[in-house]
Amino acid sequence: MVCGGFVCTKNSLSALNVLYVMVSLLLIGVAAWGKWFDLVSSIRVVAGVIGVGIFLFLVAFVGLCGAMRHHQVLLFFYMIILFLVFVVQFSVSCACLSLNKDQQDHLLEVGWNKSEATQKYVEKMLNCCGFFHVNNNGTCAASCFQHQPSQPCETCSTIIQRYAGEVLQFVGGIGLFFSFTEILGVWLAHRYRNLKDPRSNPGAFL
Predict the structure, then answer these.
(1) Cβ proximity of 30 and 48 under 8 Å
(2) Number of other residues whose CB lies within 10 A of the CB of residue 91
């Protein structure tokens, strides 16, 4: 059977969804591991990553079942969902890659101002105080704050900005890569739906 035929398309679609299953389990496992060992304090972040992992697992499961059974309805819904995910993920990835420094600073400041718990966690983990300036008359969870002025504290924005650009480039690149695998999945599912199973009745179209 030449590649591009029924069996090859079925195997390619199945392999792609097996990859998605592995990625989804990895996301769930890493999020649970990070929370278990207190590497991530925000329950929203952990819940968000686990939610993405579960959603990806369900989509991959639908695609895998549709590929194995050549099920027209499952393949149709799989195509629609995967295409919508592609549009969202491609847009977010392009946004991550196109953000300039001022836009990054604005988004970081908005995130910083949303939660006091997040501020204290970042200050403690990065050993920094404040976002744009250090308030010597205020409170700070960083250890350097207790040793001022012998050990002056850096602002958290200074430390975060050293890595924000690289992180956004990395996230955007990974997102673009997976968005192209998603559009590949849509194409494979569309092609597979319109192929006849050579092992079935030649006059039947499944």
Answers:
(1) no
(2) 12
Reduce the DSSP state of residue 83 to 3 states and report it. Answer: helix
pLDDT range class, residue 206, cuts 50, 70, 90: very low
Read off the pLDDT of residues 64-96 as tens digits, 9 standing for 90 and up. Answer: 999 998 899 999 999 999 999 999 999 988 988
* Separation of alpha carbons 206 and 189, rounded Å: 14
- Cα 157 to chain center, whole Å? 24
Contacts of 120 (CB under 8 A, 6+ apart): 141
Q: What is the pLDDT of residue 201?
A: 52
CA–CA gap between residue 144 and residue 10 (Å, rounded):
59
202 SS3 class: coil
Contact criterion met (CB below 8 Å) for 128 and 155: yes
**Count of C-beta atoms within a 10 Å radius of residue 175:** 20
Neighbouring CB atoms inside 10 A of 181's CB total 14
How far apart are the C-alpha atoms of 126 and 160, rounded to whole Å?
A: 9
Can you tell me the distance from the alpha carbon of 124 to that of 142, in angstroms, rounded to the nearest whole number? 5
Residue 171 token pair: 């996230």
